[in-house]
Amino acid sequence: MNNVYDPIIIESSIIVIGLLSFILSGVREYMAVSVYNVKDYGAVGDGQTDDTKEMEDFMDKELLHGLITNAKRYSIANPYPSFVTNANISNISLVDSKFFHIHIFESRNITFDSIGINAPGDSPNTDGIHIADSTNIQVANSVIGTGDDCISIGPGCTNLTIFNVLCGPGHGISIGSLGRNVDEKDVIKLKVRKCNLTGTTNGLRIKTWQSSLSRMKATNFLFEHIIMNTVYNPIIIDQNYCPNGNCPGKDPSLVKIKNIKYRNITGTFASLVAYKLVCSEAAPCEGVELSDINLEYNGKDKQAKNATSICVHVYGSSNGNLEDPKSPLLRSEG
């Protein structure tokens, strides 16, 4: 049985703290939007009391076809919008989750606007927003600082937009890792625009597993008007991803990366590698465009005058001030 959902709007300055599961589902087609006060269901809203049970009771009884009101501080789970269609979620703050703060799975047509996420920079696996197997998702006008990826994108995503997001601390904005499991679906059409990354380990990263188990595509990505502030690794494609050296073999990745555009990327970086594009020997990257990239080194090595670049198995084009004689930028296609 397929569920069809009416628009859901969740807003009005709710602060969410902790770890559990917040699943939005089951709203009947064409149901009118109503207004509810979750305090009528026993929620306290003082930012200290655990209101998870009361919020779950509210969602179970009202099927979440409305607007959560009252600008209070409700302590509940990290939201997992799974199997949701047509939702607008705005003006929510999330603090110190033990894992993903927001995990979007098997959903479509969701807009996140004015989201605040805050976790210590040294807290592991505290991704801000993770998106997987979802379509038409937008994250806009948000501030995210964590100990892991500010936003991470998994397999099976189509038509995602990330706009005007401030990221840092954290590991930046990441696509992947991809290809680890059998039958992973393609990632198609991503736009990341007008974002600012400050003090992050990585900036814009695409990572696929070495010895991948899936033949899949990651294609049609646009990264545009991005500002880096002391980002350690600003631009990365890593198709030899193998954390802790636990890969089953040494075979090249089978994930095909194609039509990736980096435009107007400016600011400063802290490593000696301005960009690192390491693609697969078995499936070289194609259609990579680097345009108007202006990144200046401001790391600790004050004697370093010229940063380097690394490009392996990459086909595409570039303009601007990127050329490094030690590592030719891109091989032309054809």
TrEMBL record:
The entry's keywords: Cell wall, Cell wall biogenesis/degradation, Glycosidase, Hydrolase, Secreted
Does the keyword Secreted belong to this entry?
Answer: yes
Q: Per its UniProt record, what SMART domains does this chain match? A: PbH1 (SM00710)
Subcellular localization = Secreted, Cell wall
The active site is formed by: 171
Q: Which GO terms describe its molecular function?
A: polygalacturonase activity
Q: Which GO terms describe its biological process?
A: carbohydrate metabolic process; cell wall organization
Q: Which domain of life is it from?
A: Eukaryota
Similarity field: Belongs to the glycosyl hydrolase 28 family.
PANTHER family listed in its UniProt record: PTHR31375
**Protein name, per record:** Glycosyl hydrolases family 28
Source organism:
Musa troglodytarum
From the broadest rank down, the organism's phylogenetic lineage runs:
Eukaryota, Viridiplantae, Streptophyta, Embryophyta, Tracheophyta
